[in-house]
Amino acid sequence: MASLLEVKDLRTSFLTAAGIVRAVDGVSWDVQEGETVALVGESGCGKSVSALSIMRLVAEPAGRIEAGEVLYKGRDLLKLSEEQMRGIRGREIAMVFQEPMTSLNPVLSIGRQLTEGLEIHLKMTPHEARARAVELLGMVGIPDPQRRLAQYPHHFSGGMRQRMMIAMALACNPSLILADEPTTALDVTIQAQILELMRDLARRLGVAMLIITHNLGVVARYADRVNVMYAGRIIEQAAAGELYANPRHPYTLGLLRSVPRLDEPRRARLDPIQGQPPDLTRLSPGCAFAPRCAYRVERCAEVPPLEDVIPGHRSACWEKLRLVKEKAA
Amino acid sequence: MSEALLEVQNLVKHFPVGAGMFSGPSAVVRAVDDVSFTIRRGETLGLVGESGCGKTTTGRCILQLERPTSGRVLFEGVDLATLGDAALRAMRRKVQVIFQDPYSSLNPRMTIGQILAEPLKVHGIVRDKAKRAARVRELLEQVGLLPQHARRYPHQLSGGQRQRVGIARALAMEPALIVCDEPVSALDVSIQAQIINLLEDLQQRLGLTYLFIAHDLSVVRHISDRVVVMYLGKVVEVADRQALYEDPLHPYTRALLSAVPIPDPALEARREHTVLRGEVPSPLNPPSGCVFHPRCPRAQGRCSAEVPPLREIKPGHRGACHFA
Fold this sequence. Notes:
The structure holds 2 protein chains of 2 kinds.
Chain A: E1 5-16, E2 19-31, E3 36-40, H1 47-54, E4 63-72, E5 75-76, H2 82-88, E6 93-96, H3 100-103, H4 110-121, H5 126-139, H6 145-148, H7 158-170, E7 176-180, H8 188-205, E8 208-213, H9 216-222, E9 225-230, E10 233-239, H10 240-245, H11 250-258, E11 307-310, E12 313-315, H12 320-328
Parallel strand pairs in A: 3-8, 3-9, 6-7, 7-8
Antiparallel strand pairs in A: 1-2, 1-4, 4-5, 9-10, 10-12, 11-12
Chain B: E1 4-17, E2 27-40, E3 44-48, H1 55-62, E4 70-75, E5 78-79, H2 85-94, E6 95-98, H3 112-122, H4 129-142, H5 159-171, E7 177-181, H6 189-206, E8 209-214, H7 217-223, E9 226-231, E10 234-240, H8 241-246, H9 251-259, H10 265-270, H11 301-305, E11 311-314, E12 317-319
Parallel strand pairs in B: 3-8, 3-9, 6-7, 7-8
Antiparallel strand pairs in B: 1-2, 1-4, 4-5, 9-10, 10-12, 11-12
Helix pairs in contact in B: 3-4, 5-6
């Protein structure tokens, strides 16, 4: 089975005043044609830097992709020239960012921002591009698209701007969309609208999606497969249903237990993960989650490899089998 | 339990806008439009709604950080608007606030110890310097921090630790009521539960009353005894936690609950989702009649003409809908 995107042992680091930060530290994952994959984790876990690395948008010279391969349709994006890479961004792989206000150009009209990519990537005439822009705005549910083309981002509400971002992402019929916290800045009723829209369009157009989020509920509703990240590494990887039913890493288990849920009876007390999020400049060797982990053993001083628990379900924990037994008990 | 600590009566807050060079006659943002509720001593009242619904402005009016356009805020039976400066200062001790953003609400140039000692000094609560240091240690311990944190600066702490400092600063005043304005929404998921547990522990130990302002319905359900739902400056529903979550009466509350994704793929696949049409209208020009009618799946002719009053539909359960 050929993957659409295959990330192999990707390593990206940043040079900061406090030392080298390994933001992405040897991660491997893939996306198949038409599928929706999630990268989940808390702030600083490396999920956004993973996406930026794929697009080769890591800010140099402080940031550097040190090693690994990003195979898109079999071609390693990390080996392409900047010129060739421009043909990938927006055309083959598009991005939807969290904050639509800062990622749209405030001094260009909505129409211009949509048509620019079409004219450059698809060599459309201004007239053709305009017709396509109207079609795209209609597709993402923006009423009165003709008139909207002449407006500017500040005329749009937050939800409308995110629709506009999605229209831009879809403009050149990409095969893959990287959506980095696409609804985090939006209200819950608007979040539902945008996520439903993205799912419907992705299905209809056969686009694969990588959703980057910290929201476990969003992942449960929209992702086929999930990668959980902690301190720059993937610590668990599984199909969505399997991951939520049988978490095999103490961090995943802790995350799922710590959130109050509307579908369950109210608990007297929440069950948080102890301790503080890791400081990436001062990571101890071994498993980064060990200082907060209830399952810690001596061996955690060594980094646990990401290994199969059952085929397709991998966990990076020395005690993963103890989690299996406990669940069974 | 049933004694009212704070009463908000017909609170209205309008902000005039558009007195600029190019704009025509000035308009008015109806941020809070005739809001009434009571907070009982010892309870946690949840105040939920989406951005722009007026929940934060309501909180700011209670804190007297905004002067209401009309309506009253009674604390222990006293109308706060009638208080002179000295009395208002004394009242401020009893009503404290915890902000959303632990990054911008702590002075970056002060140590944690100084941040906590300052209000003790300013309000003359602890005049002796050595005793102040002891009180700071005690406050740090109460919120789960260590004595050595007193010498650190805010940037040396994590987000969760900073929010603990924000809580300690509120506790320093020995308040009766704490307005918690989105106290966990800027924090990582694994830290949110720690802070929520801490707030609950402190409430039990110190007999605190909370107004918990948030947009996360799962968190509000966990922490609140009663819940007020706001939409576009109005209260649309008020009920006990259980009644509100198990039997929501207002179509907006129902849509909100249905929009929250649940971390369980099997359940999500079965669940029916009511996705609301459209967006929240501008509070500059709110819709006629029921402000929710343009997005309401059950709206009828009457809804655009008549404002539905907030009425008791079941005992202790009030809703503002003609058809609830």
